[in-house]
Task: inverse folding
């Protein structure tokens, strides 16, 4: 009954918050710096290919004790480019 | 063969470094090993009281380093175990009285005398911490299942890797199985997933640890203590034995049953 009003158990919040904090601690990248990096990357890439800016996903992921920058950048197809 | 030098560190203060050193030292010595522990927290001496040896101190680690006494004179023999010794921290000096090369020289001299040298690192990541890890063959990082302690442990692990001290092993201290079961405390698996290093032991929260500290009797000497058993297991794993992890599942003990009733 009371469960309807219960917030998420605190261990899950602790883990989620730590996951984010540790990525930024380990890379020494603030969320703002990461955004600036994304903008720069997109600028460079769009000089060479047409991309879908709204569908771009760039983020840091953990892999054991190392971090990787993972980018998923969908390219606009030629057909759509001609049509649009 | 010479001794292994093992440093216990944590980044954050108050997670149980000194308690762990005292308990691992008595556990190793009770198994017949020759053990010296060094209090690396210059100016904030504590390992002596946790081990119950505060009344026997004449010389300290800085006296040895500065040549005011011989090494043997600063090694206080434990009152229970004949092959366990403590080299206390200086209380009236600060961290700048010791350098990393002093610690390397001191441990080099100890290596031929004993089987284990355990170093109790101060909290933080500055001079005292650097001194404490300088001579270590192996580092154990201790943490609690709690956001601030885990975050600081991660920083320390990163520094140890950058200093090429190898990847340390992890002790998770003061885990409360009842809270884990209620999903109100990070589980050992959560902490391991976050820190991504090898686990060497999980010590349950145990009021007996405070009682033991009050008396200067580490719980590893008490056969029935759960925390004591966990520390004894870690000591065995340090020696290379393959000891299964304790079942900390909350649900068997009287305490677990009582606290479940309380929640209904």
Result:
């Amino acid at each position: 009954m009371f469960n309807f009003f219960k917030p998420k158990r605190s261990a899950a919040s602790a883990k989620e918050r730590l996951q984010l904090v540790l990525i930024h601690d380990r890379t020494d990248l603030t969320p703002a710096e990461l955004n600036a990096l994304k903008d720069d990357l997109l600028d460079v890439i769009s000089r060479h290919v047409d991309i879908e800016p709204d569908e771009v996903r760039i983020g840091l992921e953990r892999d054991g004790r190392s971090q990787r920058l993972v980018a998923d950048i969908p390219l606009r197809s030629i057909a759509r480019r001609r049509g649009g | 063969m010479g001794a292994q030098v093992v440093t216990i560190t944590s980044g954050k203060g108050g997670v149980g470094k000194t308690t762990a050193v005292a308990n691992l030292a008595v556990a190793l010595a009770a198994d017949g090993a020759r053990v010296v522990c060094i209090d690396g927290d210059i100016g904030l001496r504590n390992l002596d009281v946790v081990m119950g040896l505060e009344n026997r101190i004449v010389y300290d680690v800085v006296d040895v380093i500065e040549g005011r006494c011989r090494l043997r004179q600063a090694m206080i023999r434990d009152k229970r175990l004949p092959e366990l010794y403590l080299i206390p921290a200086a209380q009236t000096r600060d961290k700048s009285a010791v350098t990393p090369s002093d610690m390397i020289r001191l441990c080099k001299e100890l290596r031929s005398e004993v089987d284990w040298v355990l170093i109790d690192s101060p909290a933080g990541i500055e001079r005292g911490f650097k001194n404490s890890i300088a001579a270590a063959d192996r580092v154990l990082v201790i943490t609690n299942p709690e956001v601030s302690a885990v975050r600081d442990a991660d920083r320390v692990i990163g520094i140890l890797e950058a200093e090429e001290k190898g990847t340390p092993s992890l002790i998770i201290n003061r885990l409360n199985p009842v809270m884990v079961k209620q999903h109100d405390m990070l589980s050992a698996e959560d902490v391991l997933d976050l820190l991504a290093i090898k686990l060497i032991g999980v010590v349950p929260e145990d009021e007996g640890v405070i009682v033991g500290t009050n008396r200067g009797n580490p719980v590893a000497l008490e056969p029935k203590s759960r925390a004591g058993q966990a520390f004894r297991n870690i000591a065995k794993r340090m020696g290379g034995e393959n000891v299964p992890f304790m079942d900390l599942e909350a649900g068997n003990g009287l305490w677990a049953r009582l606290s479940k009733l309380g929640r209904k």
Remarks:
- The interface with chain B takes residues 9-12, 14-15, 17-19, 21-22, 25-26, 62, 64-65 of chain A (CB under 8 Å).
- Chain A has a mean pLDDT of 84.
- Chain A has three helices and two strands.
- Residues 10-27 of chain A form the longest helix (18 residues).
